[in-house]
Each structure stands twice: as structure tokens, then as C-alpha cells.
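FAQ: What does a multi-protein file look like?

Like this. Sequence, then C-alpha cells, then the next protein.
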Amino acid sequence: MALSIEAKLHALRIIKDEGQKNCVTPERLIEGKSDAVLTENGDGAVFASGQDKVKGTKDEIYDFWGFLSTHTPPYIRPVPQNNPACYEFTSAGKKYYEQLESQGVEPLDVPLDSVIFNEKLLAKVTPAFESGNYDTAIRDACVLLEEAIRDKAGLEETVSGQKLVVDALHHDKGVLTFPECKKAGEAEGVFFLYSGVMGFARNISAHHTNRLNGQLTALQIVIHIDFLLRLFDTAQSR
């Protein structure tokens, strides 16, 4: 699991506000800080520890800290001429924080059009990526792949999922073949490429939310579907 967007923003605000004044470390995010709090009867204030902690497990916070410090370019750096444990934003880190705060979703490290080359697929998934609905991006990409297979194979609208791939692309009985496949094992392998996507990505994203809901997971699956669409352009009738 990873920190929620709210927890990440909380951690980033602490780095922004305290980075140049105090030592900000992963432990500060995990353990909180000592701060003055009013007593229950309102007579005065006492110092209490554990205030303003980031909501998340220790491992999640350490993982997020590692992401910030090792990203290329880094999002945080040691404060110059200060305790090495004190960190502050880099210019890239400030931009990351501002994008996360304004958009409410993780900004992409790369433009989608630099890694997704099918124009229909790019148009289909871009709104979902921009809104942070990553399971929707996977589902939309799988639907586009289904439509491409169904149209070229000439199959009915009611045929979908695994049955669609079997009827269209099965290495022994499918109506389509790939000219790249010269041997039986190659034809079987390409069939399982498409069958695997339908059985895994399509079925999970169609019937469940948040099981495939990370940005990187969604991007890698959609890039794989982009490849399958490009390869499918070469498919021909048996």
C-alpha cells in the first residue's frame, strides 16, 4: 500500500513549512512533534508529543520519503550548511507539491503521448489519467482492444472477454492469424498475450474498483495494450 493523496499532501506541507526552520526527517512525519495543547478544563496549555503526525504506516512514510529523495530530479535535498538530516524542497519538489495540491492526483512523470502511440487509445485514457481514475483508464483501454478485435473478426456485439479472444485469435481455431507467427508455439504465445490481458486486466477492472488503481500499474497496463493494438494491425483472416 501507499500513502493516500491527503497523507502525501500533509507530509509535503510539513516539509514546505518546516524544512528551512527545523529538522524535517521521516521520523518527524511518523512521530509528530511536541506542541502546546490546551488542557481539557481550559486552564492552560501543556506540551504534548505526537502532534501533527502524517496518517500512514511507518513503511509507507519511509517509502514516500525515499521516493521524494531519489526521484530524478530529486524532490527534496539536505538543507545547505545545516544538519544533514534537515531537508527542504528542490524546485522540482515545489512543482510536484503544487501540482498534487491543485489537481489532487499524482502528476505523471512523462507525457502520455510520449509513451502511448495509438491515437484512439490516447484520447480514451487521457481523461481518466488526468482525474486519477486509474482503474477506469485500464477498463477503457481493454474495451477499446475488445472493440478492435470484435470489428476485425466480424463477431457479434455480445461476444466479449475471453470468449472473444478465443473465437478471434485462438491459435488453432480463431478466425484471425498473425503473419509474424511462423510456428505453432509462436501462434499459441500471441494468443495468450491477448487472453492474459482479458482474463487479468479486463476482468478485474470491469468487476472491481481499486484493485488495479495505482498510476504506475495503470500506465504499464495501458502501454502494454498500446503494443497489442499495434500488433493487432497486422492480424489477417485465416
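And here is the next protein:
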Amino acid sequence: MSVTQSFSTTTSMGRLTLNILLSFAQFERELSGERVRDKIAASRQRGIWMGGMPPLGYDVAERKLVINAEEAKIVRESALNVWQQSCQQLYLPRLKDDTVFQLTMGAGAESRDFYGFSQGKEEGRYVGFSYGKRTSLIMDSSLMLIEPFAAAAYMEALRAAEEASRAKAADTGGGASTTTVTTGGGGGTPRVEDSGKGGYPSGTGGAGQALKKQFYGSIELDPILAKKQFADLVDEVVQQFTMRTGVKVKIAIEIQAESASGFDDGLQRAVKENCNVLKFKNAEFETGD
């Protein structure tokens, strides 16, 4: 219309007509863009792939993303391998040491814009999976970086499985029941137990119960999985105390090792030197009985 219409921009009426036409053209363009974006967002919520290059580790089948087993091996990359490869590339900027690399990963662990983390994978399950939350990273060959899209999909699968198990437990009538048990003789203090939960009591006593001011716990760790298990202890137990003001936390570690054939001099020397560097209070080898 504006191409064939004859008007002059040298007059006020001509300039007004031009601005009106430009405003309507801009409005129509923005309205079309909003409709396309809304359509794409609604399709994504239904799990429909809206075209383009699929992310690494996935293929498109019937307009949905499915895992590509070969590419998935690339998506799950060892963090230690990433550090070693970065040190071999001459054109990449250098980091001071692996501690800087580890701290950088830890700083980005709380954001879902970066990678997910796990301490290995067993039977299709990520061990120590973490995505979008603070976690303690152990820089060894088992630490894996998971591409954000794959990490988000795995987290969603975990959430769906947890909701399904809760719904199943509710359907079967399972639930925690509270039982009052009297300890000691007939005049003992009643103690509340939760029969729906195993393990230790929660420690949240009712009215009149003495306020608990100390905690003590002990656990035996698998020497092979000690790194992973200790990191879980810090995340799930120790940080519960350290995040609160006024709480004093003390951690003591006891290591015992036995060998029927005895320990050679080289091993004894290496262990003692490492213990001195780590500032052990005492570290001695004994002859035994």
C-alpha cells in the first residue's frame, strides 16, 4: 500500500501517514514473532522437538529426542580428562593449577547453565549425581561432567520416579504411624517412635523433652569408595551443622590397616611422609601380636 500510495514527506500530513504505516508494520512483525514463540514454547512443554540440530548425545525420532548411545559417551566426559587435555593444547590459556580448575567447577555447580556432576556411573545410574546445587567435588578419574541438557533430563527422570514411588506408597496405604513406648518401669518417660521410618530417631522431641546440645556419629567407609562416601558425608551431614551459626564441629578420622605379610619399607616411608605433610597427630606402624 505504501509503495503504490502517493504522499509527500515534505508536508506534515505526509510524515504522519508514513509514521502510521511504519507503526502498523512494526506491530504486525512483533505480533507474528510472539505467536511463533508461543507455539514453540507450547510444543516444547509437550516434549515435541521443534527442529534444528539436536544436542550432542541425542537423535530425533518421531519429533522427540532419544539418546544416542555412542554420542552419549562423549557427553559424559571425565573432568580429570578435560583438565589433562586443556594442559596439552598450546593455544588454550593456562590455569595456575588443577585447584583453580576444581574451584571453577565448584563455583558453577550451583547454576543449571553449566554442567552436571557425578562420581561415576553404575548400571545406568549416576553415582553422587548433582545438578544446580552446591556440592563437594573430588578431582579424580571418577568425576564426570554431564552436558546440561542431559543432566536436566536425568534429574527430571529421577523426580518422576520419586513421585511415582510416592504415589504407589500412598495407594498401598503405606504411611508412618506413631507409637508411644514407655521405657523402664510403669512410671517411665514415654518415648515416641515412628514405625514408618527405620534408622535413628529424628531428634525432634515433644514438649518437656531435654534440649539436645551435642551430636556424635560414627561410620565405617569402604576404602575403595572412601572419597565418594566422605564427600557425601560432608554434603548431607557436616554442612547441616556448618551452615548454622554458633555450631562447633569436630571431625576425627581413624585409619587402620593390617597385612599378614607385613608392610615393606617403601610403603612405610611413603605413608609416614604423606601423614607428616597432612599433619597427622600420630601415625605409626606396629609389629602386631
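Q: Is there any per-entry metadata?
A: Some entries carry free-text notes. For the entry above: The chain is about 40% helix and 10% strand.
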